């Protein structure tokens, strides 16, 4: 199920980034649209960063680029290069893109957690299926071969050699 969500999330992310790009591009095309050409060029460069990071499935980088876009937008408005109406329009689209990026980041985190949980479960299953080493699986110690009596000369193993020479003269 996560595999099906990943392409959908990427498509949603790309569409949102494209909508942001379209909003900025349309703003600079129309004269008197509340956005000066210099500010439009700078903001479009930021939109391109967001779009590229989104297309590379890197929502964290896209989010960082979006923050840069919003900072540039605020700076351009402070300089009088962006009207309040145009700023609100761009901010509305940026907010939607931010929500999509946060959703993509959450989906990636959930997928990573699911993969880690699956790896742990597989590891535990492998450990459970392999027999644990116990006393029955250890080899028995080797026994020494049986030897004859310790008394005597060793040639007649097992015979009692202690009475040699008794009674014989």
In short:
With 169 residues, this protein is mainly α. 67% of the residues lie in helices and 0% in strands.
List keywords for this structure.
169 residues, mainly alpha, 4 helices
What does this structure look like?
This protein is mainly α. It contains 4 helices and no strands. Residues 1-5 have low confidence and may be disordered.
Low-pLDDT regions: 1-5
Radius of gyration: 41 Å
Q: How much of the polypeptide forms β-strand, as a percent range? A: under 5%
Give the overall silhouette: rod-shaped
Helix-strand layout with pairing:
Blueprint: H1 2-29, H2 37-55, H3 59-78, H4 84-129
């Amino acid at each position: 199920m996560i595999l099906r969500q990943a392409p959908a999330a990427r498509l949603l992310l790309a569409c949102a980034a494209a909508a942001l790009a379209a909003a900025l591009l349309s703003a600079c095309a129309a004269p008197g649209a509340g956005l000066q050409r210099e500010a439009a060029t700078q903001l479009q460069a930021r939109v391109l960063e967001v779009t590229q990071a989104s297309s590379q499935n890197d929502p964290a980088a896209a989010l960082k680029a979006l923050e840069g876009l919003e900072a540039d937008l605020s700076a351009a408005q402070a300089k009088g290069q962006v009207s309040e109406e145009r700023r609100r329009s761009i901010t509305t689209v940026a907010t939607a893109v931010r929500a999509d990026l946060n959703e993509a980041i959450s989906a990636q985190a959930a997928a990573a957690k699911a993969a880690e949980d699956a790896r742990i479960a597989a590891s535990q299953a492998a450990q459970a299926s392999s027999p644990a080493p116990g006393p029955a699986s250890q080899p028995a110690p080797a026994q020494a071969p049986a030897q004859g009596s310790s008394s005597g000369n060793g040639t007649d193993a097992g015979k009692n050699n202690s009475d040699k020479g008794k009674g014989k003269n």
